[in-house]
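Late entry, written up from scratch paper. The run itself happened at the end of the previous shift, but nothing got recorded in the book at the time, so transcribing now.
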Amino acid sequence: MPTTCPTRGLSLTHGNALVVTLLPALTGAVDHSVFSRRFTKTRLWDVCIEYGCTTWSNLGGIASAIYGELPSAKDRMHKVRAVVSAGMLRQLWVAFEERFGVRVLEWYGTMEGGAFAYKPPGAGPVGSFGKPPDVLELAIVDDNEQPVPPGVVGELVGRPVAGPAQLEYFKNAVASAHKTRGCWMHTGDMCWRDADGWYYFAHRKEEGGIRRMGEFISEGFVRRTVLEHPDVLDAHVYGVPSRTGAPGESDVVVAVIVRERHSFDAASLFERPRSSDPTCRTTSSSWTSCRRPLRKRCRLASSQLCSMRPIRASSSGPAPQSDRGFRGCVAEICGPPGTSARQPARSPAGR
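Output as recorded:
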């Protein structure tokens, strides 16, 4: 059996680093593990090549940050066989596997327990985070705690097959009871399942989906297309209240980190989604302060970006010279409509 060597760049205070990378080495499930002091997308493949790593963990936007790097010979010089992923974008999935010569093992889990699913490489549809093991039961419920049919987005809940979900927050009985109401562990994640029982992530309950002109926008399509721009290092897609004032409607915004801010051509960024899909609509752009790379703020909430004060600029030409230092570009781009809960075939919210 080939030696298995996982690597991770997250702090050991992070549950993913503990469960996916440290514990397998301590229990002898893998040969050994490699830890970096910090995650660095520019040196990930260097670490894998130097230490012979065969797998690494993707969390949230790490994969999109890696994909946003310029292609190089190192993309295939490593021995990585699989990426253990919690959040691989559906639109990025196949392209990522083909470029780097890896397979994606997607999974979902909560630190509180009670909800877990996984999808081995090659099994099930791309975009799904899998099915639960036999010892757990998952369900999708509406705001009234009632199960919803396949294809409809609702909150993901889970519990052991043998009994009710149990959780005790420290000195907070009210929160504990609310989290496990109805004997189910409530995850706060909005998900859906298909007719074959495969589960898909949509969005966090408190963030809501990105809806424009009555349709859910495929956030994954927009992010992947922007990341393929040679001058873009990283990107985050989010929604802001629509300027039309329509209830529940959003304008779609993409915050990007660029290689050379002063020479960046914003017009080329707008053309990229439109050339990939003729139904894509683009409007104006703006620039906003972005003092640190987006991936260093991996827990950044969309509300924080929305609170930044943009500096208006033309959709062509460099950013205003008055905005000094390392900055990001925020471009308002409306990608092709995604899928509403009534039409699940293309995965709501673009995961």
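Residues 281-301, 307-351 have pLDDT under 50 and may be disordered.
(Scratch paper discarded after transcription.)
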